Structures are given as C-alpha cells and as structure tokens.
Amino acid sequence: MRKFFPSILLSLLLLVRGAPPQQRGSLCRTKPTDLVLIIDSSRSVRPAEFEQVKTFLLQVIESLNVGPNATRVAVLNYASSVKSEIALNRHKSKAGLLQAVKKIEPLSTGTMTGLAIQYAMNKAFSESEGARVTSPDVSKVAIVVTDGRPQDGVKDISARARESGIEIFAIGVGRAEMSTLRQIASEPLDDHVDYVESYNVIEKLTKKFQEALCLTVSDLCTTRDHDCEQICVSSPGSFSCACREGFVLNEDRKTCNACGAAATDLVFLIDGSKSVRPENFELVKKFINQIVDTLDVGDKKAQVGLVQYSSSVRQEFPLGQYKSKKQIKDAVKKMSYMEKGTMTGQALSYLVDSSFAVSNGARPGVPKVGIVFTDGRSQDYIKDAAKKAKDLGFKMYAVGVGNAVEDELKEIASEPVPQHYFYSADFKTINQIGRKLQNKICVKENPCECESIVKFQKKAEELIQTLIQKLETVTKRLAALENKII
User: How far, in Å, CA of 83 to CA of 98, rounded?
Assistant: First the structure.
C-alpha cells in the first residue's frame, strides 16, 4: 500500500507572529530593577508614531513585576529639553503606572539626546527620585528610543553614565544613525543596540526587553530539573529542549523523532536585497543549513533546491543537484549576496513555474514545500503567484525579518495561515524560527494512513452493496408494474 499513497507533513505547532512556544519549567521573574525609559518626542516623531512608542513602553511594563521592592519605572520625555513624566518613586502599582504612560504627550521640538542621558544619570537615578542607590542587588537600566541625529554630543555623557553603573539599551528608528546608537549603548553592543526602519515595527522588540529584565533563578539544565530526551538548552530563568542532528522535537517539546525517510521536494526562496546587509545574509545561510541538517537527503528521500532573488531571480542550485547534506551545505555557504531590490512576486512566479518543474529535478507525486525568506516589502505584486503556488498544492512557509510586511507573509503562507508564517524583528533570532521549521517540514509517513484507507474502502464497499440490493429491488418492482400494464 505504501507506494500508492503520498506521505504527509507532521502536525504543525501553533505559532503566532513568530512567538516562541511555551516552555516548560519556566521560573522567570522580573529582576529588582530601577528602570528609566528615555523617549524622543522631537518634531520628527509624528503623533501617531509617538502613540506606537507608548504602546511599546506599555507592553514592556506589562511584563514587569512593578512595586517598591521589585521593579520601579521612570519615564523621561525629551526633545530640546527634558521632561520627567514619571519618577521612580511615583507609582507603586502597575495599573497607575500604565495609566500615567498613556497620558504622556509629545514635546515636538529638537533632539537633545545627550542632555536626556545626563538628566537620567544625575536626576532620574538619584535617591531623591526613588533610585535605590545603596542597594547593590538592584540593577540600573536605561532604554533610549530615538529617531534622529542628536543636536548635542552623546559619546562622553553616555560613557560616564555607563561608568556609574547604568546599563544602557539604545533603540534607533528611521533616520537614527547606527554610530550614535553604538556610542550610547553598553557592551556587548550586539545585545544593547537595536534598529527598526519605522515605528510600525518597534513593538516587535518587546520580547527582547522582557527577557533582558528577567532574573535567572537557576540553570535548570545543570540541575537536571527537566525532561529533555536528548539536549537541554539553558535560557534566562528557563530552558528548552533540542535534538541531535537528524532528529526533530515532537509536539511535546521534550522527546525527539528521527526525520522520516519519505520523499519531499524542498525549495528555499531567499531575499538577497540590499536591505538585508552582508552580515545578516551570512545568518540567513546558517538558517538554511540549520534546516538542511534535519533532512534525510537522497534520491528517494528529501531533495533541496535554492533560489535567491533581489531585482532579479537567480537559481543557486536545482532540486536533486546535490545528493548529500554536506554537498548542499557547502553550496549554501558559497552563495554570494545579490543586493539590489525586492521583487518577491517575480521570485514566487519563478518558484511556481521553474523550481518545481520536472525539468529542474522535481519528482511527480512528491510533496512540494517552499520556504520564502524576506526582510522587506515587495516591490511588485505577489498575490497571483502566491495563490497559484497554494492552488497547485505546494506547502508554503513565509519567514519575515525586520521590516517585512506581515500582510504579505500571510498572503504567501499556506492554510492555516498562523501555522505557516513567522516573523522576527532581529536577524539574530532567526535560528529560533529555524528550530520551529525543522519540525514542520520533516516529512514522515503516517502509520495510520493505510489502516484508515482500508477502513474507508471497506465502508465504501458495504455502501455500494447496499445500493446494489436496493436497485435490484426497485428493478423487480418496475418489472412487475410493466407486466400489470401489459
């Protein structure tokens, strides 16, 4: 029976907007922290954008354990001058703090970022404002959000603030310069500097800051207080399970399963536009190879193809060209970066018309899986090509990073959409998406499939026999009526 029935994809785990799965054993709680939020409300920040900044602040605060003996929060609003909206000792409850943040209005003048950092160091983090300066166990953290070039110096005052024990995170939006953000932020810079191209996506950084303010209670992997079958991975105050190469996590997120030997044709469609940047393109290649590691590659097993696109489309290698994981991974590592534009619609058309064609190595009757990776808005129309791919039965996954448009990701993704598209604000976290995709694209044969079909066939035969008997009865009655008429 096996050869007559196609293999099916594993049941998919629910993923909404790139959020990670719920982890068992989480003991994460908020550190006792004096947190000062420093927000730019200069004239370049439009009212609607300022509301988005406040939404971001509200989401960060919502995750905190706010209280006199837990986390205290202050908010500084700055433009040409600095306004202390909320002091560290102002609100003792989260509810009151959230209401106060909602009432903040923009100042709409210049951009004196250095002055704001100086005010935070000298005033906001002072004992008179509620800072716990004599408590060594209380962290001092500042988060600076700015969208433009400062009109004063930030390098020296930021250095003094860091030397005083303040950990500084810098978030740049739009016209903010990376060099300025790096002068403001604490080391390591990769952990303390973030940039988004618009205020529309600033909320995507919420999770990062929730984790940054999370206290690690213990290393649960070291204490063996976990149920991971193969590998335990520590994270702040929690853990996650992983599997060795060639295995994927089961839905219980603890046990592992060898990826089945059933055939599948998998094509990666990778955005190589100039907005990706060379260093991030290297992370994308690692993302591809992370998924390849899970596959059982072979002529009668998994085949992998790779297509890169920007203003044009380039096939890196077709399905079946490489017969082993090592060959595929080596070819991925050698892939050069195209740069230029983002013609996602053109790339999807190529995937449909060429990548999954028999002439390019695709096998008739074998499940087709496409993984589309992009970091920005498409410069052409994607709807028709995306629909055609799904109408042809291709299983389509959409992965977006940074300034990717979620509506476009949803347009590309197969049904059910929430289980087939992923988003991350930061390229550095796409390995987390890779782990989820490993489990999703692993094709294995359903042990219940043949049994179910046999049961269906038997039931169908029984129904057919019943219909035949009824037809025979009706035929006899008609014959009897005809005889009476004659």
Answer: 18
